[in-house]
Amino acid sequence: MNADSAFRMGSTHAVCQDYAVAGAFAAAAQSDGVGAPCRPYVILSDGCSSSPDTDTGARLLVKAAERLLRESGGPHADGLAGLHAEAARLALSWAGLLGLRPQAVDATLMTAHLDGGELVVGCSGDGVVCLQTADGALDAYVVSYPDGYPAYPAYAHQPARMQTLADAGRARKEVTRLRAASAGERLRSTQVSDGGGLTEVFVVKAADYRFAALLSDGVQSFLDAGRAGLIPPESVLPELVSFKNTRGAFAGRRMKGFLKDCRRKGWRHGDDLSLAALHLGG
């Protein structure tokens, strides 16, 4: 198993407000003295473009979540929403110590880690979860807010802001499932459902997949310069997660190669783009 992450600034931004990390829980000694296998994790955050200092806030949020993941050894699925909320509380506290306004932590939070044989993924705010089987089939979940106002994990500690969104009818969340049953098949929407709560949690059997990838909503900001139109994530995702191998910085290499291909085709991403991926085996 391996984990890696990468992020790039969008063409419309002066500073990158995405941040991502990858790591592994330290092996614990078993009763026979043999160390347990390391368990990889990935975390990413996407700061709000219209709020101040969210490049810093996104980093604080990721580092808070990483600290909590390491301290807990990775929570069960039913504890993940609480971990995201606690990470937001820590990040808000650290932002205050730095003299930043609370709006600096207006940022999404996505995490993925292993809990026994299960892959546990959490998404607070918007983002994309993409799962790939050994034979190349893809399962993707696009978490979005149709009115363009994501509910950030910091809102767990700012109920007035959350209520303002709800009162204005802007708190609606959708989860769209995309599916491609084979490597050569195009991703297609198979289901759209309403999300619930600040954190959307996905749990799958890790052995069923070779890769799991988390992506910020920048994956939905690609433009075709020749046609002056948005490129749907159904076209972007299969190329972006087509990892060539699993050694070292495999996500960074794929991001670099993918963006090189984009330049050749006249594609560009207006929003920041982050990718954090787990190789699960196979």
- CATH architecture classification: 4-Layer Sandwich
Rg for CA atoms: 18 Å
Query: What is the CATH domain class?
Result: Alpha Beta
In what range is the share of β-strand residues?
25-35%
Strand and helix order: EEEHHEEEEHEEEEEEHHEE
Number of helices: 5
Instruction: State the end-to-end distance.
Output: 9 Å
**Which structural class matches the secondary elements?**
alpha+beta
> What share of residues is helical?
10-25%
CATH superfamily: PPM-type phosphatase domain
Query: What is the CATH T-level topology?
Result: Phosphatase 2c, domain 1
Which word captures the global form?
A: globular
User: How many beta-strand segments?
Assistant: 15
3D architecture notes:
With 282 residues, the protein is α+β, with helices and mostly antiparallel strands. The protein has one domain (2-27, 35-279): Phosphatase 2c, domain 1. Helices cover 25% and strands 32% of the residues. Strands 1-15-11-6-7-8-9 form a 7-stranded antiparallel beta sheet, with helices on one face. It has a 5-stranded antiparallel beta sheet with strand order 2-3-4-5-10. Helix 1 packs across helix 2. The radius of gyration is 18 Å and the shape is globular.
Features:
globular, seven-stranded antiparallel beta sheet, single chain, 282 residues, alpha+beta, Phosphatase 2c, domain 1, five-stranded antiparallel beta sheet
